[in-house]
Amino acid sequence: MIFNNKKIYLNESNITIAKKTIPISYYEFLNSQNQQNKLLKNIPQKSINIILENSLKTHYKSILSIFQNKNITVKTISLPNKTILYQKNIDYRYSCIILISITLIIWSSILSITKKSFSTIQEKLSKTKKTITLLLNQHNETKQSIFTTTTTLINSLLKKPLLIQTITISPPKTITFLVYSYETNLPYIDHQLPALIKQLTNHKQGSYYEITYIL
Length: 215
Prior knowledge:
single chain; alpha+beta; 27% strand
């Protein structure tokens, strides 16, 4: 595990490992291979911090050697007042793993936000499709010229890089479209009907326009 890093407390009269205190003297632990094997073979983490009783300060090198011989990585050896007696050199591969993990978490968040943005666009396109379908259905139900003209205008606008937001029909002569253009300028509206074009917003990646046709 990347962040496993537990503490072992060594005192003259006992040793605390994994929050369990064993009543064994430090000197017995130091001089007995059997005791060392018994206490350290099942240590839950292989990367630890050791905290020494002040009276054992001069023994820290011997303690370091014991743990290293058992293939246990000692990150630090310190005193209760947090004075550092030994600190392992930084393992840059270990640091890279942490940075890569953080980067993956950030990218995961970005992808999640992007997915939500696509969902919003799809929702808007769906509403536009429903509006167009409704108008086409109205066209099938009536032969009035304004609906026929609206259908022609819709087909014309759909060929342009536009997103139709709303369509307002004001019988008998006015049809108004609210559109969003992805280009910096509104594409040329190639239709014979007179059109009034009003720019509503101004953005670098497109703007909203109101296009009004007079029949």
